[in-house]
């Protein structure tokens, strides 16, 4: 006997899995790339340049495809909300927090995003209320968050200089992603790549001018590695994965595409340890298992058996 889900996964084309793992590699590596960029640039400049590069690429792709940017009232509202909560605010909060937090630990904090989405969906989306199973899963995931930040919170209460403020900044960024997930579900009709370009353009307009006013180009110590890192963030951590994600959702469905939320923290933690040479923190592993286990319990769907 096989379940409907098992049968579907058995027949899933390899291209779907390739797209999924490409997304995990691109998004999951962004904390490590951020760390490289931070060696020579302030967080605000990194975010502004990243958004400007991504906006040019996404809008350029839309133009090549002959698609115009939708400019209806609902679309403009979407650009503002998605631009703020999907890019400008979380990118800055996360990049600022990474000044003191290792890239692998940052990736583990990303697991808070789907956990927060469960809570927000309870209040904003019909049919997404917290059942007993979802509440239990959320509670397990929240325990993982306490494991992740508990030691540093106690250190701050004891008067020791810790990482808590930087960790809270990254957590706030992950929570912004959860808000954006709700915004994305309520988006108006229109070409998704063009709309992503519009939101990214709005984000670039909000972040780049203030960043260059505070940090004039002549004052920036841009190194070759920093230049490559910023270009990589714009292309490989923002523009390209946006296109790949939309293609994956179109080909494989939103449920399969949502698996990136489970795999990105694992990949990011591995990159931090193996590439960046960061120590593997037991609390990060324990917290990741609790958070992802809670999410998996909360999002588990009953399936019918087929012959």
Neighbour order of strands in the largest sheet? 1-2
Approximate shape:
globular
**Count of distinct structural domains:** 1
Strand % is under 5%
Q: Which spans have pLDDT < 50 for at least 5 consecutive residues? A: 303-307
Rg from Cα = 20 Å
Largest sheet: 2 strands, antiparallel
- Calculate the mean pLDDT score and round it: 86
What sequence of helices (H) and strands (E) makes up the elements?
Answer: EHHHHHHHHHHHHHHE
What's the helical proportion of residues?
Answer: over 70%
Which structural class should the secondary elements be placed in? mainly alpha
Beta strand count: 2
Number of helices: 14
- What is the distance, rounded to the nearest whole angstrom, between the alpha carbons of the first and last residues? 6 Å
List keywords for this structure.
single chain, 307 residues, 76% helix, mainly alpha
């Amino acid at each position: 006997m096989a379940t409907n889900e098992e049968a579907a996964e058995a027949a899933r084309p390899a291209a779907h899995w390739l797209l999924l793992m490409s997304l995990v590699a691109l998004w999951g590596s962004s904390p490590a790339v951020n760390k490289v960029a931070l060696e020579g640039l302030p967080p605000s400049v990194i975010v502004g340049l990243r958004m400007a590069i991504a906006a040019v690429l996404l809008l350029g792709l839309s133009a090549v495809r002959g698609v115009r940017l939708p400019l209806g009232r609902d679309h403009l509202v979407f650009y503002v909300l998605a631009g703020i909560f999907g890019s400008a605010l979380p990118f800055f909060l996360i990049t600022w927090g990474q000044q003191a937090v290792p890239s692998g630990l940052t990736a583990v904090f990303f697991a808070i995003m789907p956990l927060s989405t469960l809570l927000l969906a309870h209040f904003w989306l019909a049919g997404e209320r917290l059942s007993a199973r979802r509440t239990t899963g959320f509670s397990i995931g929240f325990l993982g968050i306490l494991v992740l930040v508990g030691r540093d919170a106690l250190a701050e209460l004891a008067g020791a200089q810790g990482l808590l403020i930087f960790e809270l900044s990254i957590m706030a960024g992950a929570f912004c992603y959860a808000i954006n997930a709700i915004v994305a579900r309520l988006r108006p009709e229109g070409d998704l790549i063009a709309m992503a370009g519009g939101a990214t353009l709005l984000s670039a307009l909000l972040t780049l001018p203030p960043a260059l006013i505070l940090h004039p180009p002549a004052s920036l110590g841009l190194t070759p590695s920093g230049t490559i890192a910023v270009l990589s963030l714009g292309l490989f951590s923002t523009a390209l994965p946006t296109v790949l994600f939309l293609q994956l959702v179109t080909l494989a469905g939103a449920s399969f595409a949502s698996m990136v939320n489970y795999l990105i923290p694992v990949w990011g933690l591995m990159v931090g340890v193996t590439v960046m040479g960061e120590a593997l923190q037991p609390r990060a592993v324990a917290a990741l298992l609790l958070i992802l286990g809670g999410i998996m319990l909360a999002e588990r769907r009953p399936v019918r058996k087929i012959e």
